[in-house]
Amino acid sequence: AKKYSTDKDAYHVLYGISQNPDTGDYILVQNNSVNLTNQISKNEKIYSFIQERQLKINYHDDVVLEWIPYNQFNEVKETGKNDLITVYSAIWKDGPLYYQYGNYKRNSNKEVSLKCLHNSQESIECLINEAKNYPTKYKAFQLLYGMSQHPDSGDYILVLIWTSGNEEIDNYIQERQLNINKYDDIVLEWIPYNQFNIVREIGKNDLIAIWNDGPLYKKSIWDKIHARDSDKEVALKCLYNIKNSVVSLINEARKYPSKYKAFQVLYGISQNPDTGDYILVQNNSTNLANQISKNETIDNFIQEVQLKTNDYEDKVLEWIPYNQFIEIKEIGRNGLITVYSSIWKDGPLFYNELCKNYTRNLNKKVALKHLNNSQKSINSLINEATRYLTDKDVFQVLYGISQNPDTEDFILVLSNYIWISKNEKIDDFIQEWQLKIDDYDGIVVLEWIPYNQFNEVKETGKNELITVYSAIWKDGPLHYQYGEYTRNSNKEVTLKCLHNSQESIECLINEAKKYPIKYEAFQVLYGISQNSDTGDYILVQNNSINLANQISKNVKIYDFILERQLKINDDYDIVLEWIPYNQFNEIIETGKNEFITICSAIWKDGPLHYHYGEYKRNLNKKVTLKCLHNSQESINTLIKKAERYLADKNAFQVLYGISQNPDTGDYILVQNDNTNLLSCQISRNEKIDDFIQERQLKINDYDDIVLEWIPYSQFNEIKETSKNDLITVYSAIWKDGPLHNQYGEYTRNSNKKVNLKCLHYSQESIYSLITEAKKYPTKHNAFQVLYGISQNPDTGDYILVLIWTSGNEKIDNFIQERQLKINDHDDIVFEWIPYNQFNEIKKTGQNGLITVYSAIWMDGPLCKMSIWDKNYARDFNKEVALK
């Protein structure tokens, strides 16, 4: 009784136990399911196995394994035989049980396969082990309905949906079926040969036929059961003399993809009953690309690529007869290849979504890339072809391979015509770039561009390494639009002529590799060309370099500016430039120390910015000129200083470019005007100035604190509030007040109340001063903020300008630690509160340890009324207790 499930949905339900009063025999009282399968095997082990399987049925979609009397089978026909088994097709009169509308019913006159196991009566254990291999769910594509026994031979029979008669094939098909987990997976099947009608030969090994039932499929992810695509035209690929090597058959079948969207689909395996040859049953697309090259290695390669074509939008590689090409015209050659343009009459295959089949794009313009003497090395040909992707989004598509019947050179048939440079290394580099294009979205198509493509060539700049020209490119660059590549004719471009570059192709290619591959980059490399007179190679760029139309005559500075421009990948990045000094008007000195002089100025052209798809200039821009004294003596130091600036336009300090004073020779860092908001002051101590600048250069968020050098004369109402051996603390009013960002620009919070933490003798150790300053947070929303550093002109002591301080480091650290742990709107903001904040102080109690007072705290505590509040407010004139 313990064997029975307690689930009411079980196939066998045990209601209870009873006893016959006459015989004393005990009785198991079940539901009526046992009488639905009212036959039992006379073999106890088989009966027990079947009962055990039935007792495990807990779901309506479980298969009900049964003992099936042999007389239930009609139309028994042998379909296959070997030493171990004989396979028959048959009609099972009653048919299998299935669950519908609350009851079990039978699917009458069900076509089944009978797998008769020779001499199986001699080993019941082997029979049962064989039966255990089969799944128990109806949704499986291979089912064991039951077991039977041949009345004449005594051989036991497994009653199945299907069987090939070969255990290895059955196992392989079942393995593939069990791996199905998506609606568009192929259901691989064993297909009886009598399913095929109108069989006709189309090649030595290939047949076309109509498959009566057709393949199983689901239209969408929502379909629960598979339907059949009846009377389906299929290709039969006969594998001659493979009947004795099932392993070879299965290895061949494993090459096929499992998705319906694949170009070559394997629906199933069959067998010719007359010859015994196995057959791979495929979709008919293979016969659309039905030409073969007569070279086995090439044919195998093409088939291998076709078998990897897994999506309707992937390109289909083919062997293309040479007579398919018309209007053949040479467009370029070098020592290894000759390139022709041509029209392919049939054109490439593509999947037509409306017709739901493959069709051809007739009279397609293609490029024929003749590989000279390639017939001598088929492996080199295939290695070259392997470099091309079949993905739909690639720029350079390999449609197929062909062969010139006169020269016997093999040909790669490509999607886009290509100019070549006559230099093998350059051609390889350009091809490598093109082959990496696998996305239409904004990727630059690098090309070799003949020099005669350029009109209106005008010099715009020069140094010892390069000359820069503007020009009009007649054909213009390729770009993807409405499903195909077209050209943007008469495009204004920049020609960057690299002097004597023909002497080092590696240097040329390394220079080209620096450019980004996205059209949205500031500097885009469209291609490479060559000046026909000088032999110098030319990098053909977008016109952005001529927007920044000056180049430094110092090679290191030019290289640094170029490197920064090449890294621009975002419309919001700053475009660093070389800016001629004569661009500046209204130059006024605002600060100076022994290392630098700071001036304000108006930059006539102004910086570049991206606006509605193009770069424009912000004319007459107010800027800061940071003149680095004697910087011409160390260009490396100049570049290191420039490298510290962020490229983000939201940074507090932005470096627009580099310039040079023509009188002194000093180099100049041209910055945004925020520098002149900084009280136009510098500390005259290089380490402090470097520390402050370093902090300012890291600002890339409007919420960051702008650390400043603050002249002592900025402070009014200075009052000492506490003192010890190391520090004196003062309260003060900072006249200008700290900088904060409002509505996109920095303004000052005037007459700000601050605390001045004066560090005694700090002028003796700048390192200690900076270490102390580094402890403070950089965000405005912190409760303790370091606004800047100052210096008492009388004592020389340096001062940290803070929101607050107790004057005791341990107390300050404790308060700050508590403040840093605030993570909820209703957390208390613990503070240092100056004693002069309290009014109406009255004693309310006292003992030996403490005195308690009531008082009014004028400012009152910080609070947020709700989780939605962004800023803290004060609860003014708050009554508090002072302990």
UniProtKB/TrEMBL annotation:
This is Protein kinase domain-containing protein. It comes from Rhizophagus irregularis (strain DAOM 181602 / DAOM 197198 / MUCL 43194).
